[in-house]
Amino acid sequence: MLTFSVPLYVLKRRAKAHARAHGIPLHAGLDHIAQGEGFAAWSHLVQAAERTRPARTLLARLHNGDCVLLAARPGQGKTLLGLELLIEATAAGRGAWFFSLESTPAEVAGRLRALGVDPTAMQPGFQVDCSDAISAEYLVAQLAAAHAGTVVVLDYLQILDQPRRLPPLSEQLRTLSTFCRARGLVLVALSQVDRHYDHTRDGLPSVRHIRQPNPIDLSLFQSACFLHEGKLQHRAIHG
Known about the structure:
The protein is an alpha/beta fold. The protein has helices at about 10-20, 25-35, 40-50, 55-60, 80-90, 105-115, 135-140, 170-185, 200; strands at about 1-5, 65-70, 95-100, 125-130, 150-155, 185-190, 225-230, 230-235. α2 (about 25-35) packs across α3 (about 40-50) and α4 crosses α5. It is globular, with a radius of gyration of 18 Å.
């Protein structure tokens, strides 16, 4: 099990809130947050964060053929972390695909800019697909020519079988798992956490908190990442 520190974008959010609340410039808010983290200034914190980026550390732990859950309640940053994984993948010369049933291409571009990345600079290795036709069969067709090591982020798991004409979720996951394992692709599936999850009672989310409106065969995943309030844990799943 690996525990990451608070991501940089979470600290930026806190700095903005602090600056607004106290009527001070943003740079002063950033320095205040950095000092709370043990750094003399925000620039020092950023330098340290660049050396230990959570997405970079996580990507290094994933193997070709892995299927990984990335689970959190809404607003906890799972989509941003998924995009950060793709940023790291393209920086390493790997293919990167973001399939979303939730976002538009413009919204994805906006999130990338919020992470300080120019979306056009990620081409041609980075692909965004927000088609309404997204399903396991669709992903297999789109990724037919993808090279081993390509990282695929799916946003998100629980609505993959929402159209009733599509196969059950576990059947689609089995198709994706078999395909990714055979082709050496890394699949990161964003996942909802059940609304009954209570951080004060349960700590960080775990496999038992995965929302399952339809049954999910969790043994098809090698590992899972659970995110809450800037803390992230990467755990093996034993099927």
